[in-house]
Amino acid sequence: MDILTCRDLTLGYGEQVLVEKLNFQLPRGAYLCIVGENGAGKSTLMRTLLKLQEPLSGRIWLDEEAAAGGIGYLPQQTQTQRDFPASVREIVLSGCQARGSWHPFYTQEEKERAHFCMRRLDICQLKDCSYRKLSGGQQQRVLLARALAATDQVLLLDEPVTGLDPKATLSMYELVEKLHREGISVIMISHDVRAAAENASHILYLGDQVFFGSSDAFAKSPIGQYYLSKGGRHA
Ligand SMILES: Nc1ncnc2c1ncn2[C@@H]1O[C@H](COP(=O)(O)OP(=O)(O)OP(=O)(O)O)[C@@H](O)[C@H]1O
To answer: Which Pfam families does its entry note (predicted)?
Structure first.
C-alpha cells in the first residue's frame, strides 16, 4: 500500500518550471529524504503536498487513511518564529489544532495527547519553559513534538537540522528514526546527502537530473555516487 503518489507532477511559478512530469509511489511506512540543488523545488513540492500551493499540472496525493489521520508538518524556521513568545506546552498543544475542528479551549484529550508527544520526545522537563529561551536543538525537538501532536501517520519535515550543531543534529536524526521505527511515515527535506542515504529508506533527488528509488539504489546510481564520494553535502 502506498502512502504518497505523484502522477505527472509539474511544479513551478508562472513560466518558471522547476520539476517536470514527476512520477513515483512511496510505500506506507517509508522514510523519504528529498535532496537536491538549491532552488530545485524541494520546499515547493512539500507545500504542494500540503495543498498550500497548486501544481502547474499533474497530481500529488496522500492515501485517504493517512490524510484522515492528519499531517504533522515542521516548516523551515525564520528568526521571528524562533522568538515566538509562548511556553513549550502551548506550542506542542497548538499542533492538536491541525487534527480537527477549531474550538476556543483545548479538550482534555488534546492536553493528554500533547503530554504524550512531549514524553515521546523527552521534553516534559521543558514544558513550562519559554520557547524563545531554548537552544536551537531544543526548539527543533519542541517543533517535532508539535508536528507529532498533529498526526498518527505522516510527518513532513523541512530541513529540521539546519543551524544545529553536530550533537543536536545527531540527536534529531535519532528521534526521527525512532518515530519511523514506531510506524510513522517520514518525508524530510535534507541538505545532507550522506545522512539521507544512511537514514532514509527512499531518496528523491531533484535537480538537473531527477532520481527516485531506494537508498541502496541511490547509493549505486551515478548521481548518488557523485555526491557520496564528495562527502555528502551540496551548496
Ligand atoms: N511564491 C513564489 N513565487 C515565485 N517563485 C518562487 C516562490 N517560492 C519559491 N519560488 C522560487 O522557486 C524556486 C524553488 O524554490 P524552493 O524553495 O521550492 O526550492 P528548494 O529546492 O526548497 O531550495 P533550497 O534548497 O534553497 O531551500 C526558487 O527559485 C524560488 O525563488
So the answer is: ABC_tran
